[in-house]
Design goal:
Strand content: under 5%
Distance between the termini: 95 Å
Shape: rod-shaped
Helix content: over 70%
Radius of gyration: 47 Å
Structural class: mainly alpha
Order of helices and strands: HEEH
Number of domains: 1
Largest sheet: 2 strands, antiparallel
């Protein structure tokens, strides 16, 4: 072998060694980059787990608040329903008493008003149970209508109280 061939062989061998060394350095750099990516992926997973845990905790708290509100509203609804039922029973009893003439409704009469044309005596008749200001007895049909009107009014007031309690409970929930 000539010296030129030896020189060429040495150069090829040196180029090969440089290429192998560069390939090894590339693999080391690639390994480091992969390690950094893995660390970043792990940090991202940890962040997602923390966010998910916080969201689940907040959702449980909101659900607990909603359930507590539903229980309060159910209790208030039951209470208002009971009030309405009691008012309806009282009105039915009153209507029954008026229908059987067990009870008569009367109104105060202004004895000084001569223009009304009502000639009700200013004093109670002997043997009567009426004491005090003069009164006139209402016709039973009119009394029934008055009781029906007051019944509707009572039901309206009870419904209004239920609505106010509901709005109050809802606005209290939104304030929290």
């Amino acid at each position: 072998m000539s010296s030129a061939q030896k020189l060429l062989g040495a150069l090829v061998l040196a180029a090969l060694l440089v290429a192998v060394g560069a390939g090894g350095a590339w693999k080391v750099q690639d390994w480091r980059y992969g390690k950094q990516l893995a660390e970043q992926a792990q940090l991202h997973q940890d962040d997602l787990a923390t966010i998910s845990s916080a969201a689940a905790t907040q959702q449980r708290a909101e659900q607990d608040k909603r359930l507590a509100l539903e229980r309060r509203l159910a209790t208030a609804d039951q209470s208002h329903h009971q009030e309405l039922t009691n008012a309806q029973k009282d009105q039915a009893r009153l209507r029954d008493r008026l229908a059987t003439a067990d009870l008569r409704l009367s109104v105060l009469v202004d004895a000084a008003d001569t223009a009304s044309g009502c000639t009700v005596p200013a004093t109670a008749a002997t043997g009567g149970l009426v004491h005090g200001a003069p009164r006139a007895r209402l016709d039973p049909a009119h009394a029934q209508r008055i009781v029906a009107i007051t019944d509707d009014g009572d039901q309206g007031l009870i419904a209004l109280q239920a609505c106010q309690a509901y709005v109050s409970a809802i606005s209290m929930k939104q304030a929290n």
